Amino acid sequence: MRSSRFQYILILIFLTCSPVFLQAQTRADTLPPVATLQECLHYALKNQPILKQAAIDQDINERNIDIALSAWLPQVNGTGTYQHYFQLASSPIFNSTTNTTVVTQLGIKNTSVLGLGATQTIYNNDVLLASRAARFSREYFRRNTENTQITVVSDVSKAFYSLLLSQKQLQIIDENIVRLRRALKDAYQQYQAGVVDKIDYKQATIALNNEFAARKQTQETIKVNIATLKELMGNMENRTINPVYDSLALAREIAVDTNTVVNPSNRIEYQLLESTRSLQNLNIGYYRYGFLPSLSAFGNYNLSYLNNNLGNLYNQSYPNSYAGLSLSIPIFQGTRRLQNLRKAKLQVERADLDLVNSRNAINTEYVAALANYKSNYTELLAQKENVGLANEVYNVVFLQYREGIKTYLDVIVAQSDLRTSQINYNNALFTVLSSKVDLQRALGTLPVNY
Known about the structure:
The chain is an alpha+beta fold. Helices cover 65% and strands 14% of the residues. It has two domains: 29-73 and 124-293 and 332-443, Outer membrane efflux proteins (OEP) (Up-down Bundle), CATH 1.20.1600.10; 75-122 and 294-328, Outer membrane efflux proteins (OEP). It has helices at 2-24, 37-47, 49-69, 125-193, 198-233, 247-253, 268-288, 336-402, 408-443, and strands spanning 34-35, 75-84, 90-95, 100-105, 110-123, 242-243, 294-307, 318-328. The longest helix is centred in the middle third of the chain and has 69 residues, at 125-193.
């Protein structure tokens, strides 16, 4: 019985402490050796310094709001003074009985006052503006963070596609090198057998050398693309990154609804301008009601100490206290309030024009993004068909060359067409994906939750 009860206690302790241990073992965000686009985006959204700065800006704004709103709370201050007179002030005293004037020193050599004062704002135009602006400033910095997230997602996605494109080009070049080596071997054997002259053999060597040079250039391009992707993801230092993709998944992701109507309100840039206008619109009310008085309550409690002997100064205190209201009425400010009011109205009018310009720019950006997507998608379909045709042509021509029907020049042309069509297809594929990102951003529908 005691043993089972002891086991029950151990199990209870384990269940209580296990969440703590699990939380302590939680690892930081890391990127696997082979990463998909979603994993790269998730890593970037957690580690990009620009996003961390945007989050810090939000925190700074919260502190600024708290600082401004603290004026609504009571302000309590303590004061302390000590004063020693080396020579007391003299004052004439007239004696009406003797009809004479006597000069006498008045006061105490040592004086000290300890006080405690408090003020409470009842109404103040500045503090009221801070209260009304808090919601709009929070909204502005939240949208600013979202805008940064959209930029990071867009840039990382395009860099990811550029890296995949260069890697795919390297794969095509490697496959082409295999074909060229095979063709070189056949040409050399036919040259040794006396079937053809050495021109075919040399042409095959030239083509192979050019392909090796292209391979080296593509490898260096891959290094640059990796460095760019790492930078956009938050600089992964010396970590290796090997992006991977599913061709079928990419083919499904290409499609997008081209009948969607652009709505400027969905764009984060437009929303930021709206937040800015709202903040500027508050200034109109601030200056419009600037003639209202400021009202506050105050109270003080003081302890006065008076003694000619410094050692006995704090033996006895003489307290006094009072409370009251303070009213400040702006009567004439040299038309400053009216000029500020007119300035605030002009700033709001200018902000309205910014919104108009933004709507026009968003519409133009959407039209351009949609046109690029459609043209790139059409190019992709054409290049997909060309790859199949070029591959079929190359296989037929190469077999005919081995049988002596076609010349080696025909093989070079067919091989070049196949290589070009494969590269063009991959260029079109990743260009469509990049243009889709631009189209989603133009529509304001680019997802940022990964």
